[in-house]
Amino acid sequence: MITEFVITAGEVPKRLDMFLAFRAPSMTRSALKRLIKHGRIQVNAEMVKPSQRVQPGDRVTIDVPPPGPLVLNEEVIQLDILDEDEDVLVLNKPSGIVVHPASGHWSGTVVNALLSHFQRSSIAVAADGTRREPGLVHRLDMATSGVMVVAKNKRAHRALALQFEHHSVTRTYEALVLGVPDNERGLIELAIGRDMKNRKIISATSKTPKEAV
Hints:
It is globular, with a radius of gyration of 22 Å. It has 213 residues and is an alpha+beta fold. 19% of the residues lie in helices and 19% in strands.
């Protein structure tokens, strides 16, 4: 997919990589730098460096190649399984493990572990002869521990997805508190989104905040 645009007169000159981080927020800076390195991001039809300073009137072209097939490997990783039947698996995800393979974490994830578990399980194959695949209906951040529900077939995935979509699932969180809070109950209502300075965190300082309660 090729995207092309001209930098307007009102935009302040800055480094290309910093400019694109805000102009193309759906892409990480590392991904943008790789595209620049391989000549897939050009300024005025010329190859440039990430440190290139862009000016008003410059024509920027971004050529993003189509994604290649994602190959997920089975890995024997110990899972803390709380409950499991033919349709659903419930596990306790520890802190420090990524849920789904992504850039920088192609192995050692919960999905890799689930693929191995399903393959070794006595119910790895469904009644229709097809191999069971883990269906994720929600995720937890790498540093977050907690209970996750995994669908083991399409019917269970649809049912669970609808429950999460309609907020009919009740989740209870435990927190350690230093000191005694002034109030026993409270409500935090603040729009949050991807932080403007650090894309890896979610905060109230965002260009694209969404309502949160």
